[in-house]
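Reviewers of the previous submission asked for a worked example of the structure-prediction workflow described in the proposal, so we include one complete record here. The input consisted solely of the amino acid sequence. No template or homolog information was supplied to the procedure at any stage.
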Amino acid sequence: MRILGIDPGYAIVGYGVLDYQNNRFSVVDFGAITTPAGMDFNRRLEIIYDEMDLLIKRTKPEAMAIEKLFYNTNAKTVIDVGQARGVIMLAAQKNGLQAFEYTPLQVKQSVVGYGRAEKKQVQEMTKLMLHLDSVPKPDDTADALAMAICHAHTGSSLMNKLKTDKKFREW
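From that input alone, the workflow returned the following structure tokens.
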């Protein structure tokens, strides 16, 4: 299974593409889509959409794992991230790619085994699990790879496959 992990944002969108087969990971690609701070916001969204569309077409993932949006303290930030997340979800939809949402707690639990793990612990475990020489930078990229690992661990379970299988739902 090829998984595209996404850490959404409007300045930086982290992405990581992993192949997961027989309980083993292989890294296909990772990086970040960036937009400059002074640019018109609608143009930033357009760049995110276009780059995400190209990434999906180039890497051909079978599933997308994306961070579930949560409200912290800054309403403007959460709204802007929500808009960026929307164009990312649109790119997935337009390419026939099913998206799965995970909370930071779920990612930490899946990667480290502890839902209250520190960000550095998640990044270090991601590096180890993927046999990387160093933690990918920027941090958003490492977070996106952790998101993909989370989907591999939870999304590939037999029960989840049954829930998302069309034949099973119709039965």
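Residues 112 and 121 are 7 Å apart (CA to CA). We consider this example representative of the routine output the project will generate in years two and three.
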